[in-house]
Beta-lactamase family protein
Amino acid sequence: MEPTGPSAPAASATPTAAPEAPAPQAVAGERLAADTPKTTVAGNTFIAPSGWKISVKGPATILEAPEPGSRIALVDVQAKDADAAVALAWAAYGAEKKWPLKATVDAPDKDGWTRIKIYDYQTSPNEKRDVGAMARFANDTWTVVIYDMDQAVGEKRGSQVGLIYGRLLPKGRARESFAGKTANTLDPARIAALGKFVETAQQKLGVPGVSVGLIQGGKVVFAGGFGARELGKKQPVDADTKYIIASNTKALTTLMLAKLVEEKKLTWETPATSLFPSFKLGDADTTSRVLVKHLICACTGMPRQDLEWIFQFQGVTPDSALGTLATMQPTSKFGELFQYSNPLAAAAGFLGGHVAFPKLELGKAYDEAMRTRVFEPLGMKGATFDFKRAQTGNYAVPHAQDIDGKPARAIAAVNDAVIPVRPAGGAWATVNDVLKYVQMELAEGKLPDGKPYIEKDILLARRAPQVAINTDATYGMGLMVDKKWGVTVVHHGGDLIGFHSDMMWLPEHGVGAVVLTNGDPGWLIRSIFQRKLLEVLFDGKAEADTEVATMGKMYFEQMAAERKLLTSPADAAESKKLAAHYTNAALGDVKVSRAGAATIFDFGEWKSEVATKKNPDGTISFVTTTPGMIGVEFVVGGGAKRTLTIRDAQHEYVFNEK
């Protein structure tokens, strides 16, 4: 969820291209025409994605993406321990293991695998590559997964990568399924178990506050909170505490569009340009094919391009934010891959607002459409897009870890970047607000008093699959539908600086939940809560508590490993080599200053002290260290002109000395 600058030319964000990695010597394989169930050499089952090439070399099953040089290898070996297994796997894979090991962390047992260990290697930013390994044990055999991928390919094909990892199961094992089971009543004991899970995770992870709500049988059975609104203060969070709900806003935006469909002011099949003639993407063919339903389907091939809104949001309006869509290019075919675009989702909301109130400015029109079609009819009294109003009274303050892994207040100013693209993630709301929305979804369009709010078919059309996330899950219009554990879970999550949230419901069982958090790594609580809810409802295996604890340990261990690579304050000699002022057409300016031993990068909208990092290839990076924005990396150029380069997975931006 990030806003874009008002004047970013198409050439300012260049697609990344990395040197192709040396190919392992594998026997000729087959190119798959569809997602295909396969087995490793030892008989472990997985799904190989459509378009990928699969080949076998000794104990290694090698999957290569359609783009050459990006591979995942599944290697079955006999070894005394994980370290020995990984060494054997690299030898069998056949590509040079040239990267230093950055960290190893143990992971929880899962899906029949035990003794799981993750290996993270330190690549250099200019390689534009991610490399890792994961060892796991079952049936007296180690299976090592080697991830050796170009970053652009890894992000673009993230759903296919998830397909490989998500369905990799030991020979003879199947994932637990709750299909055909009847949900238990959420009685006091079961509600207490869910509460204990949240409270324990909140305390162990250092998240200051978590608010939670539960619905069953059309009634709210729990709404409350654990912890505090702000670190070091006593005011508790509760069901009326306001949080930014981030990308959960998308589902509310498509609900507003659904009301306009019901009012016959548009249809899901209406071309976007017929309602909003100025709508334009960087690719003419894609522009012409975009219907209303495609604006928020993550299916158009438009990738994340979020850095532009992080660095350039002062003075940005909805009009100028939408204007930057014309500079953005798709990186996959229409409907081919799940790729998440916040600016395009913002366009969906602004288009709806324009249809509802054509005489108003785009932002005001959207706000009014949401107020009149969604917030007021559903009784969402705390929901608002007004940041000043939201941050009064009972509201949560965002938090994140500092450079040493300790909880601190996050740099909240960066969240203002969402305001110009707020249909994609800018709503503030309470647990009680979001519960009212979930209650309506479970009632298939009816309000608590039984009165109709929206036609069932129009409401449910938002859940229809527009693109596959993986074999178990699809994305509709601002909603995911997941059947991983044999039951249908409709849900969405949201993440901004220091805020992480989720809402979910089981339409076949009449159960729903909302989780809102005000600190990192709150994403672990909000995502693993779904598993805990299913365990409680269906007497499932107790996995969630161990998973959240172990994943938290992994998070802090990985943060500590990153910290060891940084020099903070920044190396004085390297700092002195920097220019005082850099600029980039899309991301704006970077001004460099010093305060004592500290080196400061000031981006205008926000600033941060930076640390230095020496990369394996000898290059130097400057890395931001302010809580909430730790890890934004600028690589110092080696040419005659002084430059700094920053990248997301699929784009690169060069700042030149000004």
Q: What stands out?
A: The first strand starts at residue 14 and ends at 15.
